[in-house]
Amino acid sequence: MKKANRTILTGLGAIALLTVVSVGAEALAGSVSGLSIMLAVLKKATVYSLLAVSMNLLNGFTGLFSLGQAGFMLVGAYTYAILTIPVAKRAGVYQYYDGGVVQFSLPEMFSGVLGGTVGPVVGMVAALLVCGALAAFFGWLIGLPVLRLKSDYLAIATLGFAEIMRTFIQFEGFAPLTNGSNTLRQYTTFKHLYPYVIVVGICILLLVLLVNSSYGRAFKAIRDDEIAAEAMGINLAKHKMMSFVISSFFAGVGGGLMAMYTSSVQAKGFTAAMTYEILLMVVIGGIGSITGSILASFLFIGCSEWWLRFLDDSANNIGGMKLLAPGFRMVVFSVIVMIIVLFFRRGIMGSKELPDLFKKRQGKEGTR
Amino acid sequence: MSVILQLLNVLPAALLAGVSAGGQYALIALGYTMVYGILRLINFAHGDIFTVAGFVMFYAVTAMPVYLAIPVTILLTVLLGFTVERLAYKPLRSAPRMSVMISAIGVSYLLQNLMWYITGGQPQQYPVIPWISDKIQIFGQETKRVTVITPLLTVALILLLLVLIKRTKLGLAMRAASRDFETARLMGVKINSVISMTFVIGSFLAAVGSFLFFSNYSTVSPTVGTMPGLKAFVAAVFGGIGSIPGAVVGGFLIGICENLIRAMGYSTFSDAFTFALLILVLCLKPTGLFGEKLEEKV
Questions:
Q1: Beta carbons within 10 angstroms of residue A318's beta carbon
Q2: Which of B42, B102, B286 lies at the smallest CB-CB distance from A149?
Q3: Where are the domains of chain B?
Q4: Cα(A348)–Cα(B275) distance, rounded to whole angstroms?
Q5: Which of A103, B36, B157, B269 is the most exposed place for a label (fewest CB within 10 A)?
Q6: At the top level of CATH, which class does the domain B2-284 belong to?
Q7: Which residue of B has its CA nearest to A277?
Q8: C-beta neighbour count of B208 within 10 angstroms
Q9: Domain boundaries, chain A
Q10: Residue B223 sits at the chain A interface (C-beta within 8 Å)
């Protein structure tokens, strides 16, 4: 069987398995008290795993150190929210701007054609695709000037673009469209965990296929040595742009999913700090490893939101110490992150993938 | 016509505020540019060190009089800069540049979370430093004395810094290290102490900048330093990162432009303008106004 076909089959199998697991996890979280936080963590981590993988495509596979992720997520999140607020609720959301200029909602339009059960889902997926397309368009626009820059200059320029986008979205002149600096809310979202898993799974599968294709090999060649890659006949500008646009596309989709997860969006939340968090996930997982990024985002969100929670509770202090207080969790967590960054620089997976680990073990057993 | 008249009316005040803001940016930008000159590292944690200086001052005045609090703040900030370099950047000396940059981002993350923990995330009222916070009249405008002092102090400090770099042995070692790391080491330059001194000087300037900035801005919160930090970085890039006169010119230029834009009534775009300027400079002259030319070796 061709390698690509095998990857597709394995990927689809994994998605199916994870879907079943997520339905189970949701049932578990609903029935056991105190586990409701697990569902929130799983949703957030699923969304972040797509964001981390899309950043890894740029930073890990193409060697373009970009820090513009938050900007593309912002575009995605706003696009999603604007396209899916039900028409009846628009007057309430855009209360200062006469209900805004957009007077349709994709889920409602599709449910008019396809019925009440399939329609909204198709509408939401269509909205996510628009998120990606718009973010990709912005990626292309930004890529034109900045992709000529190298390493840290590229990082700063993309960071600057993310900040510019944040300012423009809050601009009063666009307010009938973007609601200015007010929140967008009450839009349609996925109610359960499994749709997140399916959408993210398919996106990541597409990224895996891309990385394993001849384009992916060109990306890696550019990462390893630009001049050598150019000498081998790889069109640098074209491939860098392709990687940048594709990464922006998935960052946009991730932004849309993030809007769903948070159920309200406001531009001022999409700061450079958000990009830094995703970058740290990529680093912890191993730069250049897709499964590493996925694992790392679950560990990252799990640690920062859930498993270290007890550190925030001042009731847990032992013997009159006042160490444990709100915020201490994040201090401990950032120290852990620093230890990984300093002493385990290759991250959890290095540049290996999860299946590689099993292969190696099989190989060893074979020789024995 | 009326637009021009209106501009002329607000021009003196905007220029004054711009020169003042520019001075603060220049002081922070020097920290970025000196570190970049030697380590080729964008020290993302520099803006947070600046914020920490603000908080240290806030806590210091509750325990001691102001004239003691100021040197204590400077001392602690310098110590923090030194410690950060020793703990987070020194172990990565032989690592790829990106690893050090990621470490800097990690330090910034840690410092912000630490500040959040200690302060409970509440913005704090910055203490009033007597004399420099007094109101004075200038060009028919009422303003704080700090607005006038900032550019003067900035220029004085920069002249001092230039003397240090051009005339002393330490300055010679710094210049040697920024020219060629390995050769400087072979010539007997103690590279680690030179780098530490760079961080000490950078943090000292950030502490001075924080007195001036927060006296104007008056509240300190854990993330307040991010924006001035980024803008100071833009200033450093604009002037040509690694170049000290470049950072100063860049700082003043950005401060003035920003305040002019604000005075014309487009305050939403003042931040966007700074970054647009950055991208424009990077695309037209990637090494900045006074930057050295970088060559790629095969």
A1: 7
A2: B286
A3: 2-284
A4: 35
A5: A103
A6: mainly alpha
A7: B109
A8: 22
A9: 3-271
A10: yes
